[in-house]
## 1
Amino acid sequence: MAVKWMADPEAHDYDAAADYLSLIAEAAAVEATVGALKVADSIHRKAKDILRAACLALLPDTNVRVRSDLGKISDGKKLSPILLVRGDFRTNAPLQIADGYHRVCASYLTDENTDIPCRLVSWQS
């Protein structure tokens, strides 16, 4: 079954991204970066590449949020695009999945080559 996607992230995704990013960056950088995510164009990246760039493990289908998203995929419901903050190869800083880790994992479990719509920005200051 193919994964279906909404055209734009949901409003609460930006709040979730800000909550997560506030754990690893100062408030001004978080505010500016989330602002950039809101106006960024969508791009598509494969689930397998997102997980690799983020240096994150695949969450199993037993994870409650992944299981929920797998159910949505099975029911033909659309998932919200994911929000990403670019890593930096020069400092070995990984890509940050600011919001949508469980959606990436559910997509990977459906098909690792799933093209996922993303908003991708660099850290803003």
## 2
Amino acid sequence: MSLNKDRRIGRHAILLLLSDHPAEQLKKLEQSKWKGCIGKVGSMDAHKVVAAIETAAKKNGIVRSDVYREMHALYHAIIEALHGITRGQVQIGSILRTVGLSFAVLRGNPYDNELEGDWVAVALYGTIGAPVKGSEHETIGLGINHI
């Protein structure tokens, strides 16, 4: 089992998220038989962030809602990414914090061996802070899980 250096799914998810030309970036990834999407969400509720990312991933065919392992893998990648943006405690509104985030979801096989199967990565970037304009700072998070 060898992780292909050029197919690091987390790196590609972050590059897609931060790209000035995400449509072009996504096209290149799709040529490698990967699936991805980007979106935005802002909320004081963590469950709304999770729901927005899950909805985008389902609508774009990245995961199938009728296949439990795919939804489960996506959920854990989202929670891992949320841990990054919230510094380890997935709490937002309950402690008077709000987020404004862009996200990228990417699915593909980062290994040389096709039998290793697909993985999913969720990258989040944006702001977090008190629900007062100007009281936020940048944040980033990444979650990766096998499907």
## 3
Amino acid sequence: MDCFCCFNNQEDFWTDPASSIIKAYETTDQTILSHSSDLGQGGSTAVTAILINNQKLWVANVGDSRAVLSRRGVAEQMTIDHEPNTERGIIENKGGFVSNMPGDVARVNGQLAVSRAFGDKNLKSHLRSDPDIRYVDIDLDAELLILASDGLWKVMANQEAVDIARRIKDPQKAAKQLVVESLNRESKDDISCIVVHFKG
């Protein structure tokens, strides 16, 4: 499921961007939960980027969808992957548990491989949906930003993705090539990808 966060009040964003982003994520989660009868019991991770005047960048995420910035060809991870082992204490304090089956990744209640997500109604009492948020100034060193789901990041390192994207001038073609490369590497998870080029 692809998610788009809802910003109800643009004026709030200009006065307090971080609070506005948190509210947008909360509204998105509540909207998905309220439509669970139509959408099913599943959920989604998300990564969002807001670029203002090509100079100010706000990035937020829930789950293991990730944003990676390229500065002079060097990859810089902008987001935090929300993994169950990292947030085990929070999950257990909410009455959940984290299990590692032999040969498997850590999962919330033995089911979900992320500790934060939209939806997932049957696990919601043990999950968070609030985002981690980061702000950076975009200067002349910043070349591009990659936003992608875990289907790409499970088979490709941040620097590898940046190296591929930098070779292709058209950002849409760069995103497509990253998806193709992920499929060639036999990624088994969903793959969504957007590449943003910054104007020099």
